[in-house]
VOC family protein (Roseibium porphyridii), 120 residues
Amino acid sequence: MLTALDHVNLHTDKPDALAQWYENILGLERGPRPNFSIPGIWLYLNDQPVVHVVEVDQPPEHAAVSLEHFAFRAEGMAAFEATLKQHDLQYERVDLTEIDVDIVQYNLRDPMGTHIHIDF
Protein backbone atom coordinates (compact mmCIF):
# COMPACT_ATOMS: atom_id res chain seq x y z
CA MET A 1 0.00 0.00 0.00
CA LEU A 2 1.30 3.47 -0.90
CA THR A 3 1.88 5.92 1.92
CA ALA A 4 3.11 9.12 0.19
CA LEU A 5 4.44 10.61 -3.01
CA ASP A 6 8.23 10.53 -2.68
CA HIS A 7 9.54 12.86 -5.42
CA VAL A 8 9.33 14.03 -9.01
CA ASN A 9 12.22 13.80 -11.45
CA LEU A 10 12.73 16.63 -13.96
CA HIS A 11 15.14 16.56 -16.91
CA THR A 12 16.71 19.79 -18.12
CA ASP A 13 19.72 21.07 -20.02
CA LYS A 14 19.88 24.00 -17.53
CA PRO A 15 19.90 22.33 -14.09
CA ASP A 16 21.26 25.26 -12.11
CA ALA A 17 18.73 27.73 -13.53
CA LEU A 18 15.86 25.31 -12.91
CA ALA A 19 17.04 24.59 -9.35
CA GLN A 20 17.34 28.33 -8.65
CA TRP A 21 13.73 28.83 -9.78
CA TYR A 22 12.49 26.16 -7.37
CA GLU A 23 14.57 27.71 -4.60
CA ASN A 24 13.49 31.32 -5.26
CA ILE A 25 9.82 30.72 -6.06
CA LEU A 26 8.86 27.63 -4.03
CA GLY A 27 11.42 27.88 -1.24
CA LEU A 28 12.97 24.46 -1.79
CA GLU A 29 16.60 23.98 -0.74
CA ARG A 30 19.48 22.12 -2.35
CA GLY A 31 20.68 19.16 -0.37
CA PRO A 32 22.77 16.00 -0.52
CA ARG A 33 22.53 13.75 -3.57
CA PRO A 34 24.12 10.35 -4.16
CA ASN A 35 27.04 10.25 -6.58
CA PHE A 36 25.07 9.01 -9.60
CA SER A 37 26.74 8.59 -13.00
CA ILE A 38 24.66 11.48 -14.39
CA PRO A 39 24.81 15.02 -12.95
CA GLY A 40 21.90 16.54 -11.12
CA ILE A 41 20.57 18.39 -8.10
CA TRP A 42 18.21 17.30 -5.35
CA LEU A 43 15.86 19.92 -3.93
CA TYR A 44 14.46 19.42 -0.47
CA LEU A 45 11.23 20.33 1.29
CA ASN A 46 12.11 20.10 4.97
CA ASP A 47 14.17 16.89 5.14
CA GLN A 48 12.69 15.17 2.06
CA PRO A 49 14.26 15.43 -1.43
CA VAL A 50 11.06 16.10 -3.41
CA VAL A 51 12.36 17.42 -6.75
CA HIS A 52 15.20 15.59 -8.47
CA VAL A 53 16.71 17.66 -11.27
CA VAL A 54 18.68 15.62 -13.81
CA GLU A 55 20.99 17.23 -16.36
CA VAL A 56 20.52 16.18 -19.99
CA ASP A 57 22.29 17.36 -23.16
CA GLN A 58 19.16 18.56 -24.97
CA PRO A 59 15.99 20.12 -23.59
CA PRO A 60 13.28 17.46 -23.32
CA GLU A 61 10.41 17.48 -25.80
CA HIS A 62 7.28 18.35 -23.84
CA ALA A 63 5.02 16.52 -26.30
CA ALA A 64 6.59 13.23 -25.22
CA VAL A 65 5.81 13.75 -21.53
CA SER A 66 2.51 12.51 -20.07
CA LEU A 67 2.78 14.29 -16.70
CA GLU A 68 0.23 17.11 -16.69
CA HIS A 69 1.17 18.63 -13.34
CA PHE A 70 2.32 18.01 -9.81
CA ALA A 71 1.22 19.85 -6.70
CA PHE A 72 2.35 20.95 -3.26
CA ARG A 73 0.32 21.92 -0.20
CA ALA A 74 1.43 25.17 1.36
CA GLU A 75 0.89 27.80 4.02
CA GLY A 76 1.40 31.55 3.76
CA MET A 77 -0.74 32.31 0.73
CA ALA A 78 -0.29 36.10 0.80
CA ALA A 79 3.50 35.83 0.96
CA PHE A 80 3.49 33.27 -1.87
CA GLU A 81 1.37 35.49 -4.11
CA ALA A 82 3.69 38.42 -3.31
CA THR A 83 6.66 36.29 -4.43
CA LEU A 84 4.93 35.48 -7.71
CA LYS A 85 4.23 39.16 -8.32
CA GLN A 86 7.76 40.20 -7.29
CA HIS A 87 9.20 37.80 -9.90
CA ASP A 88 6.57 38.89 -12.46
CA LEU A 89 5.39 35.30 -12.96
CA GLN A 90 2.17 34.43 -14.71
CA TYR A 91 -0.23 32.35 -12.65
CA GLU A 92 -3.89 31.49 -12.33
CA ARG A 93 -5.65 31.51 -8.98
CA VAL A 94 -8.54 29.05 -8.60
CA ASP A 95 -10.80 29.15 -5.54
CA LEU A 96 -12.37 25.72 -5.06
CA THR A 97 -15.55 26.28 -3.10
CA GLU A 98 -18.29 24.52 -5.04
CA ILE A 99 -17.64 21.10 -3.45
CA ASP A 100 -17.60 22.39 0.14
CA VAL A 101 -13.82 22.52 0.42
CA ASP A 102 -11.77 25.57 1.20
CA ILE A 103 -8.82 25.21 -1.18
CA VAL A 104 -7.15 27.94 -3.21
CA GLN A 105 -4.88 26.74 -6.02
CA TYR A 106 -2.15 28.74 -7.71
CA ASN A 107 -1.31 27.29 -11.11
CA LEU A 108 2.02 28.25 -12.67
CA ARG A 109 4.79 26.86 -14.85
CA ASP A 110 8.48 26.42 -14.12
CA PRO A 111 11.10 27.59 -16.67
CA MET A 112 10.90 24.23 -18.50
CA GLY A 113 7.13 24.59 -18.84
CA THR A 114 6.16 22.05 -16.17
CA HIS A 115 2.71 22.81 -14.73
CA ILE A 116 2.70 23.03 -10.94
CA HIS A 117 -0.08 23.95 -8.60
CA ILE A 118 0.27 25.07 -5.04
CA ASP A 119 -2.70 24.37 -2.77
CA PHE A 120 -3.57 26.59 0.18
